[in-house]
Amino acid sequence: MKLFKNILYLAEPGLDQTAALARAVSLAENNQARLTLLQVGEPPRAGLLVEHGTLEAQDRMAASLEALAAPWRERLAINIEVRLGVPFLVAIQEVLAEGRDLIIKLASPETGLLDRLLGGMDLQLLRKSPCPVWILSPRDRENYRRILAAVDFDPWRPELENDALNRRILELSSALALADFAELHLAHCWEPLSEDMMRLWSDPDDAAKIADSVNTEHLRHQEGFERLLHKLRNWIGADAYDHLKPIPHLLRGSAPETIPELVDRLQFDLVVMGTAGRSGISGLIIGNTAEAILSQLKCALLAIKPQGSASPVTLPE
Prior knowledge:
elongated; ten-stranded mixed sheet; 10 helices
């Protein structure tokens, strides 16, 4: 299965990018994809001397990228690009102009957030890129041992469960787990929507009724999870599914609390998740909820957008 065709690696100057680029090269090789290395410098302020210095800086950036790419030249054709501007804006404009289908980069350091993986530029990419964004951890392994796919569905409306976003998340996670001989885990979060309200308005004698209601909701989510696992078997094939033996985690609680806790407890190397969901669903992963999860992760992250996602970034006229 070819996951990507046109990969953009956004260089993060000042950091050791050897392992990050090695993964980008391996991904491009396995997918027979194009790989472009992009570094973005600050544009000149004003004046000829400043502009001359900027040209020299661009030459230095290009030389740095060439040195970074040199060990891989015999294995893969790698394009080099140096641009001026705001890095996340330039990267997204590259996606729009050149049809890039993945942005991959090393996590940006963030002063004062030593335990957080995602820096400000990374969050801007995750919010505004129309294509998947893969943020690599500085502690990335050459091969992942454990991958977590976070999925969302509405057990009360099973006709919506075969949605494109869940399928994309699961197919990508499965392919990456197979390539790295990694464990594949699936997580779905649920919260009993009616429990607090029932406790507020019920008599103490209604405890059994409340417990039955919560149990019914739990069973619905469990059945929905089992249906999704069955669909995954059909999507990737019985042989691949039986080889992976995906491990499901049905988590009671809010996604921003339960997913980071699971990631820390089981030491996942990569989380694959969507950055949007459907409104009105328990365990929703959307907007601020997604960012609340992402900002707590200390491992690599592959963020998937729904098909046809638009970006607020536009191409320059």
